[in-house]
Each structure stands twice: as structure tokens, then as C-alpha cells.
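Researcher: I'd like a structural prediction for the single chain below. Treat it as a standalone chain; there are no partners to consider.
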Amino acid sequence: MKLNLQTKAVKIQRWFKFQFATFLHYKLTTSALRLTEITKVSLFDLNSTANIRPERYHGEIWNRVNALRKYADYIGFTTPVFMTITPKTQHKPTKQIEIKKNVYKIYNNKNFDGSFSYVNDARCYISDKWTRFTRERLFGDIKKKYGEGVIFMRTYEPHIDGTPHAHLVAFIPPEFKDRFVNVAKHFFNESRFDIKTEFDDEKGGVVAYILKYILKSFEHAKEGHFDDVACWYAYHKIRRFTTSRTLIPLQVFRRIQKMEELQDIYKTTLDYKNGRFEVSLAYHPFAPVYKDLSELSSQDYKIATISIIVDDGENTSFQVIYEKSFNIDFFVPDNKHNVKLKPIIHHSKAIPVHILGDLKQYFYKDGELIEVVRSINNYSRYELLQYYHSLDPLTCNLQHFGLVQNECIKRGLIGGEIQSLNDFNTNIGA
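Model: Treating it as a single chain, here is the predicted structure.
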């Protein structure tokens, strides 16, 4: 029998998945990563991703989920909403109908577009759709009132044919609940969409509800092997669990959590938002290098310092050293198949960089931070007020000070009357 396009796509995906799993297992068990002339470690032992060693992430996930819920309650986002978002029908090669409870019949989807990248297409659709949803006026009104946008956590899960769907929990202020539900139902009407707003607190409430779906993706950890679901996440580069940028950045938290008093993400987030943390240089998304500072040269390394002010006023610092560029050698134990990779030059393109504790904007290109001139009209209310208090009228340009002061008055951040910039004369003799 001649296979139709949908069946071919599914079979090819399964073949690629098998080939990838075989290759990945070989590479991880026979290869090593050489970072220095001395250090050689198996990639299987080195790899700490959720795909290979998920048990290492369980504690952090519980910590993040509970911290997000606590912080939501702290700022008044006490109403949880659970949603399941699926892609449009053209991204799904098969459909299924329930014959009886937990028994389904699978058949080809005649509306499938035949794309071999349907898994990534579906994931992009869900992600883009959610991003556009959070730009609705509803969330602008929430942020205007509370100073915080939507708080959410999301996990992806595969259907039997590999098409992803997302389970998502959003926390919102209670007075916006009905409006949120109505906007969501209208916005996600192109595909199947489920929404739930009532939860049984005796069974753990919404936290237990979302954790059930998150931990399902780690079931292969119990058997200690790399199963089909784990391979699906790795092959398609799909994150199992993501959240809104509400808590302290993980890049910072993972550097400082060795201090016992900083291991609670919720408490550490409150300290972070209250200004107890300061990073002297933008943290970079590649791995840190641990060496004696006397061995380093500024040409080869960037050194970021995370400073923490503890309760008694004492400063504690963590230095994180990043290599600007380096070569990676893959090698097998018998040295018969050495593969020399090209040097990796990080950030050869200009990318926006946010430096913690600094209201200025920068671009990072070719190892240099380039400051971007930013209009105060684009500052948030918090940023504007912080910037205003940082200005010293005795040393800064007075007309610039007046411009900032007028903007603060205009937004209702400080009292007073708007003055002409000519009143802020820099000529003392005038």
C-alpha cells in the first residue's frame, strides 16, 4: 500500500529520532570535552541538562514553582488560571477520537500541511501566540495598576505523533479574572483551547496541577535511561519548563545558591528586587571558567562580580570568570577520531545587553559594551524615578535634570509644577 504524505512525515520523524538517539548516546559515552590541557571529563558526566540527568533539576523546579506562586500572592496576583494550548490543525499529522474512556482511535489528518518540521512549527505557533496574547491591553492595565505584567509557568508535552501542546498556569489579580478568561477564549479560538480557574486546595491546588504535567516529562529518570520522550525534547530543542521573567535570573541564582541563606528562590528574589544584589558586568550565556585570577589576562577573559549586601551590612562577592573565545576538541578514548572544531567567537553580532543595577542600555559586540542613548520617555515609572534620584544637580547638566524632573512630575511620581527648561540655567552668573 502506498503511504500518504502524513504517514510518511511521521515515519521519517521517527527514523530521525532513532538516529539522533543512537548518535547522542554514542557521543555522550565515548566523547569528552577538553577545556584545558589538564581537564578531561566524559560528556555524559559533564552534561547536567534535564534531558540526560533530570533528577538534578527536580529540586530546582520545585523551588521555582513554589517561589513563583509565593511571589504572585505577595504582589496580589492571587488568582491562578490553568490553560492547555494546542497548535492549529495544519501542524498536526494525525487526529484522534476517544472511542471509550482512555481508548483512542488515531487517523490521518487531511488538513496537515506535510511539513517535515511540523514539531518546531507547532512549538513556534504556540510560543508566538502566547507572546502576542500577553501584549493585549488587558496586561497593560494590570501592569499599570500593579507594576508587574502577567506571571506564568509553562511546560510542553508531545502528542503521540510528536506534535507539541502546552500546559500553562498564569497568575493574575482577582479583579481581572473574568476579563482574562473572555480575552483568552477569543484569542485562542483558532485551535483547541481548554481553560480552568477552580482548583482543589486540599489536593495541592494549582501548583500540584502544573507539577503533574512538568514531572511527567521526567519519567525516564525513574528507569535511568534515555527514552522516546526525552529524545523528543533533546532532538527538537524544546524546553521542558519555562517561566515569566519574574524571579531572580537563573544565571545569577545558580552562581550564588551555594550560600545556604540564598537557596530559597522566593526570599532571594525579594532581596534581588530590593537592591541587595549588584552585578558589575553583564553575565554571559556561556559556561564560566574557574582559574586563579593571577593566570588571567583581560584579553582572554571577562570577570563579572556579583556583590551581595547581607543584613549586617557586610558585602559578599562571587567572581564569575568567562572565557571570551576558545576551541573545543571532541575526542574518543582511542584518539582515532579526533575532530578539531572551529573557534567559537561568542557574540560576533551586536546583541542587546542588560547590566543588573544599571539603567543604561548597551549592545555587546566583539567583546565590547557599547552604550545606547536612551530617551527618558522610554523609561518605566520605576526606572525614571530611580534615575531622577541618581542625578546630582550640582554636577550634572541642569537642563537635563530639569527635563527628568518635569517628566517625573508629568507622570505623578513627584510633586511640583512643570517648569520651562530655560529656568534651569547652567550659567551661574546670569
